[in-house]
Amino acid sequence: MYTHILVPTDGSDLSTAAVDQALQLAKALGAQVTALTVAEPLHFLPVTPAATASLRMDYETHVKEDGVRILGAVRERAAAADVTVETVQETAGDAWRAIIDTAERKGCDLIVMASHGRRGVSAFLMGSVTTKVLSHSKVPVLVYRA
């Protein structure tokens, strides 16, 4: 059935619940898991070259540390579940595109991700990474909603 599951995570409680579901599914299927975290690139107005370089370095350090923390927690959960996991940290303007690209690049045959379940005007105004993945991915998507 499924042999390689991609699970994107932002470290939120809902996302962590989706990670747990993906790990349980992977355990039942004997599948491997790739966990992904995607950070926004730094968008800023240029001030001075020195200030810009310092701001970029601080931001990149923070993003890397946050990703290490988030993916470290996934590794711990995977080890406890006795599931093989690879972790990937990406920086991209469109998280949904990074998720789909990673699934294709890694040969994943299922994406398991959380959805906050926004509807109506809220969903329209805020957009939804999950909705965009659902509508653009050629890889099947399992959506976890609590």
TrEMBL record:
Protein name per the record: Universal stress protein
Record-linked Pfam families: Usp
Top-level division of the source organism's lineage: Bacteria
GO cellular component assignments: cytoplasm
Similarity comment text for this entry: Belongs to the universal stress protein A family.
Organism of provenance: Shinella sumterensis
Keywords attached to this entry: Cytoplasm
Compartments, as annotated in UniProt: Cytoplasm
